[in-house]
Amino acid sequence: MSERAILKIGDREIELSIVEGVEGDRAIDISKLRDLAGVIAYDPSLGNTAITKSAITFVDGENGILRYRGIPIEQFVEKPNFVEVAWLLIFGRLPTRQELARFSEKLTENELLHEGLRHQFQHIPVDAPPMAILSAMMNNLACFHQQLLSVEDVESLEAAAARLISKVRTIAAFSYRRSQGLPFIYPDPHLRYCANFLHMMFSLPYKQYIVTPEIEDALNLVFILHADHEQNCSTATVRTVGSARANLFASCAAGVCALWGPLHGGANVEVMNMLEAIHTGGMTAEECIRLAKDKSHPFRLYGFGHRIYKNYDPRAKMLREACERVFAKLQHQDPLLDIARKLEELALSDPYFIERKLYPNVDFYSGILLRAMGIPTNMFTVCFAIGRLPGWIAHWREQHEDPNSRIVRPRQVYVGPPKTDYVPLNERK
Ligand code: ACO
Fold it and tell me: Residue of 66, 70, 135, 277 with fewest CB within 10 Å of its CB?
């Protein structure tokens, strides 16, 4: 008989089953707890609750392990190919040569924006935050591609996924061009995914941007390392919205909104602001560490700490190595990399960070690499979103196809006023 948990409430004993994952995860199934015992579980911010079973990504935070569909992410360093990883996450296995070629073809077919959507960029203030533009435009895709509002088979899922993954890159590049007052550069069907994004970002009507292989590989790696991270805040948001049977565009647009927050994807912007403040003499690295430890101050050491990782985030390690590798190859230097290394050294030898097991996370080094590509700070979280999109789509699909999926509807413990009578306005003191 499989293992069971016994919960004792007063003199009643309730038996609960234990759900096991393939890597040894164990969870007590409390889904019937209220029916059996008249109580619910209290777990603020869901820090200790599995909201689903998932076959997409495995994270072992204690040992710093991350695998996509079973494959350790370290294995994607050689010849990184974001499109291949996107397919892997969404469809559950590595694509064959023909499947990859077909999906790439679909990305090319979908890279242009509908002219109606393109015109909308003209009405956005030039200083609008790119994440606001991205979420709005992703939602707007639903207006222009209504045939994909309902995704009921693999073909329509592939069509919707290709449309989103291709267009997100065009939307991102156009929002940057708009902010710079530069003309939009149309995608080039002969370029691969990452090179095409850089082309739309940086080419000029009279001068083609030439992407070097090192930069193209680095961007592929950045996107791959952001591609999925199981039930993080934005993915959980996509699943929550999708659980109401909201369409893929609306669900992913909601994911962009969640990602924007500085405690989540927006941390890569905060890291850069912090490194720049140190570089320009606004504060020293030591002051930064002191401030991060000061509980009376809201400041945190951005790019440090993680709900799941209590060890070095493997993505941060790979991004740090990528910075060193790419900078050496391109003979590029950035004082912010030295400052980041120093901050890391200070934090990792400080009892505050040691005791709380706070290590660099994915956001600590990603910005330095993006900066080396010429990508401005306010586009960092947008790049995170481009990378994370396949993960959102994979989770949306997994949930959509799960026959046991129900609308996400947490409970609460009410702590407001007891029953109180309404007082008419003229009788109120
Ligand atoms: N700087 C200073 N102290 C920190 C930091 C930090 N970066 N991160 C956590 N702590 C402290 C907390 O104040 C808390 O201290 P206490 O026990 O004395 O109260 C303790 O470490 C535990 O932290 P929590 O806030 O409980 O951790 P939680 O799991 O809720 O939050 C989070 C994780 C949001 C990532 C947090 O570590 C943080 O704010 N980091 C900085 C922002 C950041 O880099 N976000 C990106 C995360 S990765 C991603 O989303 C892509």
Answer: 70
Q: What is the pLDDT of residues 135-160, one digit of tens each?
A: 999 999 999 988 888 888 999 999 99
> Under a CB-based contact definition with an 8 Å cutoff, are residues 233 and 261 in contact?
yes
Element housing 59 (H / E): strand 57-60
pTM: 0.95
Dist. CA 57–CA 39, nearest whole Å: 32
With a 6 Å cutoff on the Cβ, whether 268 touches ligand 1 is: no
Coil vs helix vs strand at 6: strand
Q: What DSSP string describes 157-192?
A: HHHHHHHHHHHHHHHHHHHHHHHHTPPP----TTS-
3-state SS string for 223-252? HHHCCCCCCCHHHHHHHHHHHCCCCHHHHH
Handedness of CA 178, 191, 145, 83 (dihedral sign): negative
The amino acid at residue 261 is G
Q: How many CB atoms lie within 10 A of CB 195?
A: 20
| Probe target for ligand 1 pocket from 263, 290, 392, with the most ligand atoms within 8 Å of CB | 263
Report whether residue 307 contacts ligand 1, using a CB cutoff of 6 Å: yes
Task: Report which secondary-structure segment, H or E, holds 135.
Answer: helix 130-144
Which of 256, 272, 361 for a ligand 1 pocket mutation test, highest count of atoms within 8 Å of Cβ? 361
Active site residue 11: no
Tell me whether residue 184 is exposed, middle or buried, using C-beta atoms within 10 angstroms of its C-beta: 0 to 12, 13 to 18, 19 or more.
Answer: middle
* 379: phi then psi, degrees, rounded to nearest 5: -100, 0
Q: What is the pLDDT of residue 241?
A: 98
